Amino acid sequence: MSEILAPAGDINCAYAAINSGADAIYLGLKSFSARASAGNFGEDELSSLCAYAHALGVRVHVALNTLVKQDELSDFMSAAVAAYNAGADALIIQNIYLGAYLKERFPKIELHLSTQAGVNNVYGAYQAKRYGFSRVILARETPLREIAKITKIIQTEVFIQGALCTCFSGQCYLSSFAGGNSGNRGRCKQPCRKLYSIDRKGFEERRYALSLSDLSVGRDIQKLIDAGVYSFKIEGRMRRPEYVAAAVSYYRHIVDGRPSEDDLGALKRTYNRGNYTKGLAFGQDKSFISPAVQGHIGQYCGTIKVIGGRYLCQSAERCGEGDSFKILRGGREVAGARFSGAAKGGFYLSSATRLMNGDKAFITTDVSLNASLLGGRKLKKITLSAKVECGSPLSAAIDGEEFESAFVPAEAASRAVTAQDIVKAFSKVDKYPFEVEFGAIDIVGAPFVPSSALNEFRRQVYASYFNKTGMVGRERMTCPQVPPLPSPVKNTMTAVIARSLSGLTADIGILKPADYDNIDCDSLSTFGGRKFLYIPPFADGERLESIRDKLHLFNGVYCDGVWAEEFCMREGVPLFAGCGFNIADGISLGMVRAEYVCLSKELTFREAEPLARADTFLLTAGDIKVMDILYCPFERTCSSCDRRERYSLADEDGRVFPLVRYNMGGCAFELYNCLPLAAAQNFTGALADCTLSDVERILPAVRNGGELKQILVQYTTGHSKNPVL
After folding, report:
1. What is the pTM of this model?
2. How do residues 467-484 score in pLDDT, each as one tens digit?
3. Of 77, 318, 463, 712, which has the fewest CB atoms closer than 10 Å, so is most exposed?
């Protein structure tokens, strides 16, 4: 058994998903949604939609998957309770600790751990299960071999279609630090979709160097089914209803054993970035990056021939009025075009840009197809029986549910009600998705029923049945109290992340290898503080196995991946919970099982100071990692690779972002902010990230803001003063 899960950015997309055969839909509320720019739903609209979906056997999952700050906890709890009371079947939560807090108070609530939590190995699965989650939504980077292991532990949900994030799930801060809009709070401005150049031969020309093609696993969904995956997720809460309908239909037919190339064509016409990739679950393929085309490319439909100043698209496709096209030349977008008339051997296009012989036309809007995709309606078959007799209320039953009217019919003076009258009245289903079959219609005697009373009874019956299907057995919850924060505790310790700890002076040293096959353990002997090994947030079973024999050389592990809590518990080693845990509230801080905790780097000093404890740290100096990248941005051109550790990624505004390679079971990359951080503070532990910076100069100045700024010259104070959106 499996589930096709579809996006519902607004009510029209929700109907499109349901009518096309989705088993479940997921959506966001007006707040705490990772797609803040989608239409999203208010409480009343959600309640109505849940009733509609449940009447048709479709589940509704509500995403509350953003970073929540301390002063937002009450609103977050209220939103979670409101979603449950409105009929949500499951809540999608990014913060595993806030989810656990809800589960402790409301055991009946169903929780799904968001892909933003970055579950990519068995430790994340065990951890989610321990905290009360019934499902994990796996990071898109999780390989098939690891997926198969995780499905044996907990129910899994895997992305099969839609946009791919450049950065590893939950660890992207590029939009936050480059523009002040946090992806972790649902406001990503997609800087990864912009033009960049890289200082490596063959990649100097500005292009969409970080923009990934859309994911489309297609018939390889069977491999995921064989691996034990339960839910198959279509991304796209920012996309139009016709895309939702096409994507659901495509996978519905594949899962049901009726695959069709026409379905794939329809999907390409509604949205197709980069002609699709199978994704990292199956390994990086040649179409993984879409460097030439950033947006919707559509479906290829013909080649341009210029005839007497007109543009003939030579094609066997049937196109019509209102259809739109994208024109590519040499693989790059050069123009848009519109249908302008039928022609022998194809059709004519109009374009404000001069087209050339040999240009390729891709259809991006197919008016006729869109109407067809949105033309169907899913209905629930119900069987209705009724009884009418003098002196008793009208009675009706739908599939065992019984209803009575307030109206009591009397003996007819002229015309008595007939069975045909009952059938005619109840054949009108109003707004409800019912397909009515009639059982026994019993007329006892000669009762008189005015048409107004009969229609009112019909409306009452259908409304009562509809509402009951949406809330069967559900008890309403009340909002839990948010516990007060304890008084802050000052921490004067200093921690540093560096490639080598040799000769450094700090309370905690975090060794961050460039090559995990050759960890510089010699530098540990000269470092006098506590020693932690940096582990990247993505580390599947094979990668973790390769470093397990080195753990005894360290006092513990530093990691940005929340799953590391479970890993360290099972290995019996202390954890330094990194910035990527995104700890931003007192509940989470009180629940995380770690010896040291770094607060979120998206907090201001004002927001972070009340959370200060004897074991907390804040990133205040050095490098700001804004992305973990698990694919090769050089498109796996290994034979010509210069294998440098450091590159520069330059944007259109002249900003330069360091791109750093490391090896852990293969190449992976980190992207750093264009400016280092200078945000000295004295209320909690100071963490300096000197992966790239001159650690010997920066480390002594971590607590001295003026000195730190003099050393760095060009710097940013990050979010220390200005809150992130």
Report:
1. 0.95
2. 877 665 578 899 988 999
3. 318
